[in-house]
Inverse folding.
């Protein structure tokens, strides 16, 4: 079995295991929704070397797009989701197109500026977005014959979409396109010198990332029945980035781990201590200092420590291209 | 080597960085299927000339033509499909990717838009893969095909650096100091390689090693302070009094910088 199928199998196992170990269908759905957002973020950060603070924009706009469609039109749920993905892709194309004109810190600052811009846009146009209160009472219509009213049924729906999108992202990552992204991440100058229009590749990566993030945002709005202002806030971008980094940027499955860890640990900590974010900050420092390959790297080391696991963890330099030494190069 | 139209020609090419004129009215013409070298002291503008010819730096004035077609305003990545490929003076590889993948990417760069399709996988019978294998064979890198480029020895990295240009299947290949930092044994191998490349490509290269320049070039262009000083066959350049006075004298006798 190759690495991609192994990772897909692990993702499927997680989707199956969550209902067995968790009491709340809402929380379980949240894990998979953020897993999609983090995997999309990973496509930019881990594969292209772009540290984008704009992921919250696409997530938030996806929430609004789905909410507005379902509140004001009688379009079916599937179409509402498609519209959110398109919204995410279109806006991400625009944000990407403008931001990649600058590199390094300036790129990051531009995405941050866009993040603030869209937040205040959502805040200002209260009539459309509900401003501070958010867009309330978003219905969750049935999809075909399946009613999604129950939180676990909805989880099943999310899980199917999650696995489809995860497989699609895996396909993207292993395509000639994804492999060129890795080259861009490694050495942008050489990528251009051998003939690749690097900007087109970065913009396409943004569009794909935006589409998946927008869809995740829509699923989140349907989950809680609200498209809150916090979905488009800078803090959302930050959370998605933290999940991605905690999980590890070497492969897409790592983002699933990161999102699961973040969502579940936040839930546990917030119930025992209101200042739980402090602990998460501490954890991020530990990851940055001691485990730059994130939770996935930790898992890999554990598997390698088992006598049985040695063979299966052999790395090919194409599929596990990001060495800890090169972390942060493209950022 | 007759009076054919040049494959690449620069006409009064100038490049200005702020108030500094790095390249001043350089006129150059590269005949097809020749090995053409560019020499000159540091700061003569050799690398800037390469940057301008490959499109990495925009010409401030002047014209560049490829087979008579004006490419002055064609961007660097778009010049690759037209048949121009280069190597760098300072090794510039995809350090974390393996040798085969480095070369596959370089071969794919000829048809970059094919790679823009996010659903298309890498077919094992892919043309780019075949080219990568062929180039590895030619550069004696087959035994390290699965090693990350960053793990190779310096000599191997320099060979791969040249290979990245070869994999684009260019008609004109530009090599910027291919022997830079190499040990003596590797230098001989590189000399043989450049001569070999000259059989099926037009080669333009910058070099400080006079034994290579004088041995394998058909034409030598001497640059100084952003201008062309002299151009001609090695024997003529070697004996040119102005060249000897201005720059070469000690280098020709073997004192290589």
């Amino acid at each position: 079995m190759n690495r991609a199928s192994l990772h897909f199998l692990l993702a499927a196992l997680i989707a199956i295991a969550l209902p067995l170990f968790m009491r709340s269908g809402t929380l379980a759905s949240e894990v998979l929704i953020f897993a999609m957002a983090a995997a999309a973020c990973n496509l930019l950060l881990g594969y292209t070397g772009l540290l984008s603070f704009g992921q919250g924009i696409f997530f938030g706009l996806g929430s609004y797009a789905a909410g507005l469609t379902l509140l004001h039109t009688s379009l079916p749920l599937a179409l509402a989701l498609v519209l959110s993905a398109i919204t995410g892709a279109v806006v991400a194309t625009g944000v990407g197109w403008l931001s990649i004109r600058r590199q390094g810190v300036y790129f990051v600052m531009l995405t941050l500026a866009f993040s603030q811009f869209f937040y205040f846009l959502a805040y200002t146009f209260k009539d459309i977005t509900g401003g501070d209160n958010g867009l309330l009472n978003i219905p969750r219509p049935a999809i075909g014959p399946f009613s999604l009213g129950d939180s676990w049924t909805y989880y099943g729906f999310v899980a199917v979409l999650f696995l489809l999108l995860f497989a699609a992202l895996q396909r993207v990552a292993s395509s000639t396109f994804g492999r060129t992204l890795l080259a861009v991440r490694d050495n942008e100058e050489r990528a251009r010198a051998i003939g690749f229009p690097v900007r087109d590749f970065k913009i396409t990566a943004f569009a794909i990332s935006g589409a998946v993030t927008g869809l995740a945002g829509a699923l989140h709005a349907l989950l809680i029945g609200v498209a809150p202002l916090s979905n488009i806030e800078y803090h959302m971008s930050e959370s998605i980035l933290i999940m991605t980094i905690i999980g590890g940027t070497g492969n897409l499955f790592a983002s699933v781990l990161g999102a699961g860890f973040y969502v579940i640990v936040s839930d546990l900590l917030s119930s025992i201590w209101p200042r739980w974010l402090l602990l998460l900050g501490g954890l991020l420092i530990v990851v940055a200092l001691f485990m730059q390959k994130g939770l996935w790297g930790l898992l890999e080391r554990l598997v390698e420590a088992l006598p049985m696991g040695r063979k299966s963890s052999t790395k090919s330099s194409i599929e596990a291209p990001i060495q800890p030494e090169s972390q942060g190069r493209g950022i | 080597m007759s009076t054919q139209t040049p494959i690449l020609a620069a006409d009064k090419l100038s490049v200005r960085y702020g108030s500094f004129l790095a390249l001043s009215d350089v006129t150059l013409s590269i005949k097809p299927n020749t090995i053409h070298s560019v020499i000159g002291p540091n700061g003569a503008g050799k690398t800037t000339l390469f940057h301008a010819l490959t499109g990495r730096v925009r010409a401030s004035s002047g014209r560049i033509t490829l087979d008579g077609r004006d490419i002055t305003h064609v961007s660097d990545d778009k010049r690759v499909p037209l048949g121009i490929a280069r190597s760098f003076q300072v090794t510039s590889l995809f350090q974390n990717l393996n040798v085969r993948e480095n070369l596959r990417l370089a071969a794919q760069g000829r048809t970059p838009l094919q790679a823009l399709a996010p659903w298309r996988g890498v077919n094992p019978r892919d043309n780019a893969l075949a080219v990568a294998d062929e180039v590895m064979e030619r550069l004696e890198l087959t035994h390290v095909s699965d090693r990350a480029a960053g793990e190779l020895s310096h000599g191997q990295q320099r060979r791969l650096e040249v290979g990245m240009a070869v994999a684009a299947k260019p008609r004109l290949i530009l090599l910027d100091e291919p022997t830079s930092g190499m040990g003596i044994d590797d230098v001989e191998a590189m000399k043989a390689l450049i001569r070999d490349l000259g059989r099926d490509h037009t080669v333009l290269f910058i070099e400080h090693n006079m034994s290579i320049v004088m041995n394998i070039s058909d034409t030598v262009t001497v640059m100084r302070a952003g201008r062309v000083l002299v151009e001609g066959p090695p024997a003529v350049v070697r004996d040119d009094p102005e060249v000897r006075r201005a720059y070469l004298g000690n280098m020709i006798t073997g004192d290589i910088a």
Q: What stands out?
A: DSSP finds 14 helices and no strands in chain A.
